[in-house]
Amino acid sequence: MDDKDAAILQYVAEEQSLTKAAERLYMTQPALSYRIQQMEREFGVPIIVKHTKGTHLTPEGEALAAYARKMRDELNAMKDYLVNMRSSVKGTLRLGVASYYGLYKLPPLLRKFRDLYPEVQFSVTCALSSEIIELLSEQEIHVGIVRGDYHWLEAQHLLHDEPICLISREPIQLEELPRLPQIHYSAPKAKAVRQAATTFDHTIQGWWHEHYSTPPVIAMQVDAYETCKEMVKQGLGYSIIPGVFVTPEDELYTMELKLKNGEAIRRNTWMLYREHSRELAIVDRFVAFMKTEQPGSPAEA
Question: What span, in angstroms and rounded, lies between the C-alpha atoms of 272 and 287?
Fold first, then answer.
């Protein structure tokens, strides 16, 4: 089994679809099916089973997929180690970043880091913060950047925080909110968050319950903060979103949310990593670079 075979088993296990796995591998589905058939002959066991809802691995296939994931992790670790033997800053830096951060903040930072270290390559996964935590736990990425507060026992650094704001087209009073239509942000229904609300949801729910005894009037639910803002601009209701998405050019009424004790509600952006990963020169330099570029308030664990 080579690295390509290991990737085939991993992607089939994740996607449960030969078509989607083939797309991720940049190969045709017939070629993928043929290679799986070859592996089945090589190991003498069935690897996949097809049904109307997709493709699943057999128990034997799951065992091979687990071995394949371990093999790929060890191979990546060895590649990192070999590059690091000379303490040179080169190789591939694997990052997982919250989608907003990947769109608005990360590109100029990576360009600047590449200017400093031209031999560095990047592998960037943009996803929900909860999915990034999972990737980091499985050591599929070197560094994760998440929005919100998550349980992470290893090293972390606060990059920046921002207010959470109520926005509307016209000024409104807080006591009016339970009677007004709300444009509600609802996180996309990805696998990692199906069983629990996001930290942003929990924060807003806590603020609402502290101020009101009745639930909000949800006029519509959308899965992007920018969409919330555009709906508000059309006078379809008010919304509660991170302040970073609102600019003076939007010409909207904005109010930063506060608890009854006067404390402002903030949304944090954290850089997370494993301390031992800084033994790799590329990770060590990137972590130091991020702390310099966006110093925040350090909180090492």
Answer: 9
